[in-house]
Specification:
Helix content: 10-25%
Structural class: alpha+beta
Strand content: 25-35%
Largest sheet: 8 strands, mixed
Number of helices: 2
Number of domains: 1
Distance between the termini: 23 Å
Order of helices and strands: EEEEEHHEEE
Number of strands: 8
Oligomer: single chain
Amino acid sequence: MKPEPTDVIRIEFDAQEELVGDLAPVKCGFCGAPSRGKLLHQGMLARGFGWDCPCGARGIHAPLYDLDELYPDVLEAWGLEPREPDLAPAVPLDGTGLLSTSYVDGVSLRAQLFAEARRQGAQVAATQVVACVVMSGHTSPTWTWDLLWAHPRPLAG
């Protein structure tokens, strides 16, 4: 079952594409407390968005259609050991030097990512937020974003 969006956030950038103000907090995927937003700086997540909860959980905005590229950086942002996802290798196209493209099954990759995080001892969760991005006065349509959460240790039950 798909998670329902838990928050609506507005993210504004100025003409130099710098974040205006603080990134809005969102509800933690574990305890529901407001989690402090931040811009991310590592790897493929650079200029992406993350949230830290006082309970120790970390949330990452990770579009499922990009999860094949974001996978190792999401693990690292969660404080876990990065690794590459298990994907079918790209194959050359008839001696052209080009590689074939393949469909990315984001839902399956999320399941694989969560299994890897659990293998490393973390708990995982997924939530969604509705995001509105404003750049230089232009407001984009709203988007429903997937937030992937990990908590480094078991939570008290």
